[in-house]
Amino acid sequence: MFLGMDIYSWIAAIVIALIVTFLPITLPFKIVLAMVAMACFYFGRKYYHNHKNGGAETPSMSSAESEALASGILKALGGKDNIVKVDYCATRLRFEVHSYASVDEAAAKAAGAEGVIRPAKNACQVVIKGDVQAVYDALRKQL
Fold first, then answer.
1. Number of domains in the chain
2. In this structure, which of 12, 25, 60, 137 has its CB flanked by the most CB atoms within 10 Å?
3. C-alpha to C-alpha distance for 98 and 54, rounded to whole angstroms
């Protein structure tokens, strides 16, 4: 976001400026084309933001739910002694673990995780449906 405008607003402003500047038509037609372009970008952007996640909002969790999920994931990963480092992104909790064999994928799924990904020997990622940051915060309190 730059000067209060996101990328879609900047693209719309550039397209409108090009329409008004370079098209060899009369001014009233340029104004109408600029308004049509602005409406297309406005409604297109609004549609995109409302439907990029299938039209659904990210489900929120209560603090009790996020603490229960964090506790279950912590047990599934072998306890706090097995955790070296924890971080998160939009959909996952990312862990660096001491013992790769201590990670129990079935227990993590039973605790409420969508799945477990193992990208490296001492790393695993727990996919969560919902508010990942709330689960991360609850997990940090337990560590």
1. 2
2. 12
3. 38
Is 58 part of a structural domain of the chain?
Answer: no
pTM for this prediction: 0.58
Residue-range definition of the domain harbouring residue 36: 7-51
Residues 75 and 105: beta-carbon distance below 8 Å: no
89 among known catalytic residues: yes
What does the pLDDT look like over 73-115, one tens digit per residue? 999 988 888 899 998 887 889 999 988 888 888 998 998 888 8
| Beta bridge pairs of residue 93 | 88, 126
pLDDT at 24 over 80: yes
Q: Choosing from 89, 110, 129, 142, which is the catalytic residue? A: 89
The answer to whether 34 touches 49, Cβ cutoff 8 Å, is: no
